[in-house]
Structure formats: C-alpha cells, structure tokens
Write a structure and sequence with these properties.
Elements: H1 9-36, H2 41-50, H3 68-81, H4 83-102, H5 105-112, E1 121-125, E2 141-145, E3 148-159, E4 164-172, H6 181-184, E5 185-191, E6 197-199, E7 213-224
Parallel strand pairs: 1-4
Antiparallel strand pairs: 2-3, 3-7, 4-5, 6-7
Helix pairs in contact: 1-3, 3-4
Length: about 230
C-alpha cells in the first residue's frame, strides 16, 4: 500500500516561509551573486531573521532544535532559489553538528548560543589538499603541550572560510600512522581570530560562484584544552 506523509502545521509553516523567501528574495538576485561571486550577506541575515538557518541548534542553546526532516523541507525550498545560497546556509549546520553531537554543555552554550543571538557563520575544517573524503589521510597535526594543543597544517576548499566566526577543525593527535581512525584524530573548536589562523584566497569556480571556498592554514595555532571535542 502507498504510504502518505502528512506534514504537521509547524512543518507546513516552515516550508511556506522558506518557499516565499526563495521565490521573492533569493531568486531575483541569484544571477547577480553567481555572476559577481559576492557573498550574499543580506540574504544570510534575512534567513537568520526568518529562522531558516541554524535549525539544528538545540532549544537549550536558544535554537529551534529541528530534526533532519524539518531541515530538509527548508533546504529543498532554499535550493530552488539558489543552490549557492542554500549551501552557504546549510554549511552552518555542518560546522555545528560535531558540537551538537559531542560538545560539552559549556562548548554548546558558548559556540551554538552565540549563533542564535546574531547572524554569523561557522565552518567545517576537515578537507585538505590531499585528503577530502579520505579523512584517514589528514596531515594536519595537533601536539599537546601542557593544557594547550599546537596545531599545524592546511585545510582546503572550506565553505564559508573567511566569513566564519569559528571553525570546527579535525587534526591528527596520535602520531602512530597505524592507529585506527577513531583513536587517531581529535576535533577542535577554533575561534576565527585566533593567532595562527590564516585564510587564503578564494577558489574561483565555474558555477555556484557565491560559495566562499578558501584554504585555511593553521600555523602554530594554539588551541586551549577546553576547546577540544
């Protein structure tokens, strides 16, 4: 028998809001942003005002605490207006998810909470020049020195890099090349203005040119112990 899914009234409201925003505010300017490569700051701010960004942030941190299906309803509508704008918006969820899943209460309050107070972006720093889908091949290293970690390495093609307020960064903390992946790496929350963080030049693409894809270099970056996940 066919299975019919009935949306809740709240889901219908989110869907309608996202659809109206995509058609009336994103679509009319999508070609301009794709042609110029400008970052769509006004659209990001408007999405934040409408509650169409940061949908996964828990209610305990001031967010909506929406589920994956709810977020998909919103994302589908935004992508109709422009996939570049939609990807920039949804990349926030990618950067936030390790903190949502594995961050402690203090980290969640500090880094997720601030994103509900004003429009801002975060970024997911995992991909490197020689390692993307092959996460086990990451070369960025973090060495523990007392209560701090010294991080050295380069990340590449980081969505929202240079626009982010903070980064989730994955680095190798176990120097043993034979160590299993679940014991070889540690995640860190890195403030964008931390000494040692360098943002490279934007990578130019032939399509979806709105996206900010840049290399992020960690050169003797000092990360405090309380910022590791």
């Amino acid at each position: 028998m066919p299975c019919f899914l009935e949306l809740t009234e709240e889901q219908k409201e989110f869907q309608a809001t996202a659809r109206k925003f995509a058609r009336e505010e994103i679509l009319p300017v999508a070609a301009h942003y794709d042609r110029t490569g400008e970052y769509p700051v006004p659209l990001i701010k408007r999405a934040w005002e409408l509650g169409l960004i940061n949908s996964h942030i828990p209610e305990s941190c001031g967010g909506l605490g929406l589920g994956s299906f709810d977020a998909c309803l919103i994302t589908e509508e935004l992508a109709y207006g422009c996939t570049g704008v939609q990807t920039a918006i949804e990349a926030n969820s990618l950067g936030q998810m390790p903190v949502i899943i594995a961050g402690n209460e203090q980290q969640q309050k500090k880094y997720l909470g601030r994103m509900t107070e004003e429009p801002m972006m975060c970024a997911y720093c995992v991909t490197e020049p020689g390692a993307g889908s092959d996460v086990a091949g990451l070369k960025t290293k973090a060495e523990k020195k007392g209560d701090e970690y010294i991080i050295n390495g380069q990340k590449m093609w980081i969505t929202n890099g240079g626009k982010a307020n903070w980064y989730f960064l994955l680095a190798r903390t176990n120097p043993d090349p034979k160590a299993p992946a679940n014991k070889a790496f540690t995640g860190f929350i890195v403030e964008a203005d931390s000494p040692g963080v360098q943002v490279g030049r934007k990578v130019e693409m032939i399509c979806i040119r709105i996206l900010i894809l840049v290399p992020v270099i960690s050169n003797l970056l000092i990360c405090h112990k309380g910022n590791h996940i």
